[in-house]
Design goal:
Elements lengths: L3 E3 L2 E3 L6 E9 L5 H9 L4 E8 L2 E9 H5 L6 E5 L5 H10 L10 E5 L3 H15 L2 E2 L6 E6 L2 E6 L4 H5 L11 H11 L6 E4 L6 H9 L4 E6 L2 H10 L6 E3 L12 E7 L9 H18 E11 L2 H9 L5 E7 L8 E6 L6
Parallel strand pairs: 7-8, 7-9, 11-12, 11-14, 12-13, 14-15
Antiparallel strand pairs: 1-2, 3-5, 3-6, 4-5, 6-10, 9-10, 15-17, 16-17
Length: about 350
């Protein structure tokens, strides 16, 4: 995609325009409240409310670049409450659609031909858009809350760039959620001991550019991909989570997606891996440190936490995506250890 490369994101043409539009943003199932919290901090966004566990509706009134810079949602769509032609016409005049080049290519994501074909005909006739199912800018689709028009150029990958991945790599949106739970502060030392291709480290760098992000993994192939994804990562080392190459009390934040036996690792191996990794986390974390660990091997991690006296479970959050239902566990120091 053509665009301007700047501090970790790919910017599409038209983002500096002022727009007024009613939008639906989709995030991870279980993270809508985090997205709402972030949107409330943006001056151009208001009238925010949660539609479901994975979607938020809001009004944007200002530069599109401000809301586009939020990395906690995967897709942006126009809410089509008043039929579909009128909201699309309004957006084409003063909203998000006004930032796209014309003619706009579209598709109608509806399996019912009795609904799909009349919508296609009306849009071609009234808006002069081009029906391009294989190469679309706007996808009209039905949800439980009605019709929406997804904006392809403002999807996560189009805003921030495509990452090279392995089949078991953490998805970018999962990484963004884990990073929010870590509550990063400027200048902190942030480590992912199972960093793989670096997705979590890149999310941490987006969230806190002044942080020092470091990663270890036992797989040299994954580390090579992480290095390719973003040269400025640095601090990548081939090592195991049972023997981290960091001094005691030297790490402010640990954020990681633990192996839990679906695409990488096994439950049997985790019986020794989890306690050993928690022992190392306990060793390297600062007295006010924080760790965020994602896994579906939940009972095993709970048991390991109970036996690790230097860490306590502060909170947990269930996430759902791609058929998986892992939980993110937030660990801090017990009060007497601080």
């Amino acid at each position: 995609m053509s665009g301007i490369y700047s501090p970790g994101r790919v910017i599409t043409p038209g983002l500096d325009q002022n727009v007024t539009d009613r939008l639906v943003l989709r995030t991870l199932d279980g993270a809508a409240d985090l997205l709402m919290e972030e949107l409330r901090s943006l001056p151009s966004v208001h009238s925010i409310h949660q539609l479901s566990n994975d979607s938020v509706e809001c009004t944007v009134d200002g530069r599109l670049s401000e809301i586009a810079a939020c990395s906690l949602y995967s897709t942006m769509a126009i809410a089509l409450h008043d039929g579909f032609l009128r909201p699309l016409e309004q957006s084409g005049q003063t909203g998000v659609l006004a930032t796209l080049p014309t003619p706009i290519g579209f598709r109608v994501g509806c399996d019912d031909p009795g609904l799909r074909y009349p919508v296609i005909t009306a849009i071609e006739r009234e808006l002069a858009w081009v029906n391009q199912p294989g190469s679309w800018d706007v996808n009209l689709t039905r949800t439980a809350d009605g019709w929406i028009a997804e904006i392809g150029p403002l999807s996560w990958m189009r805003r921030f760039g495509r990452l090279e991945r392995l089949p078991w790599s953490t998805t970018p949106l999962v990484a963004e959620v884990l990073v929010r739970l870590a509550k990063l502060q400027p200048g902190q030392r942030i480590v992912d001991p199972f960093c793989g291709t670096g997705t979590i480290l890149l999310a941490a760098l987006r969230r806190q550019p002044s942080g020092r992000v470091l990663g270890t993994d036992r797989d040299p192939r994954a580390l090579a991909i992480a290095d390719h994804n973003r040269q400025q990562l640095g601090g990548l080392a081939q090592a195991t989570a049972e023997a981290l190459p960091y001094a005691a009390g030297a790490v402010d934040r640990i954020i990681t997606n633990l192996p839990f036996g679906k695409l990488v690792g096994t439950h049997h191996a985790n019986r020794t891996l989890y306690p050993a990794a928690l022992s190392e986390i306990d060793r390297v974390l600062t007295t006010d440190g924080r760790a965020v660990l994602l896994t579906e091997d939940k009972r095993l991690l709970h048991k390991a936490i109970e036996h690790q006296r230097g860490l306590k479970l502060a909170r947990q959050r269930l996430l759902r995506y791609n058929g998986a239902t892992p939980t993110a566990y937030v660990l801090t120091r017990p009060r007497e250890r601080r």
